[in-house]
Amino acid sequence: MAKEPKKSKKNLAQNLSHARAYVTATFNNTLVTITDQNGNALIWGSAGSAGFRGARKSTPYAATTVVENIAKKAKEIGISSIEIYLKGPGPGRDSTTRAFKAAGLNITMIADVTPIPHNGPRASKRRRV
């Protein structure tokens, strides 16, 4: 009978006032992660975890709902201002920024960090018909 290791839950910093919000907006889902200044994840959520399934997951309304849930938790731990980093071309891109503002969080910066290839891999050969 081996002892099971104790599972410890990380203590969230209660004096945290500024954080970063990473929004990944894909065509099928919207993921939002709130981190501290060092990049340690504090809160996360997605349209799927907010209860949306199928085609409704990829709507701006679902993205707004996700941000409302996360902003409520962020205010509980003392976050008042955020930097937003947007990634991806999805429909939840703009609505997340509006939802953060509507939730009463002060937005200090908005940055687009969508990866853009510098020419990328070689294209496949041309199709002959």
UniProtKB/TrEMBL annotation:
It holds the Pfam family Ribosomal_S11. The gene is rpsK. InterPro entries: Ribosomal_uS11, Ribosomal_uS11_bac-type, Ribosomal_uS11_sf. This is Small ribosomal subunit protein uS11. Keywords: Ribonucleoprotein, Ribosomal protein, RNA-binding, rRNA-binding. One of its GO terms (cellular component) is ribonucleoprotein complex. The lineage of its organism: Bacteria, Candidatus Curtissiibacteriota. GO terms for biological process: translation. The keyword RNA-binding applies. Located on the platform of the 30S subunit, it bridges several disparate RNA helices of the 16S rRNA. Forms part of the Shine-Dalgarno cleft in the 70S ribosome. GO terms for molecular function: rRNA binding; structural constituent of ribosome. Part of the 30S ribosomal subunit. Interacts with proteins S7 and S18. Binds to IF-3. Belongs to the universal ribosomal protein uS11 family.
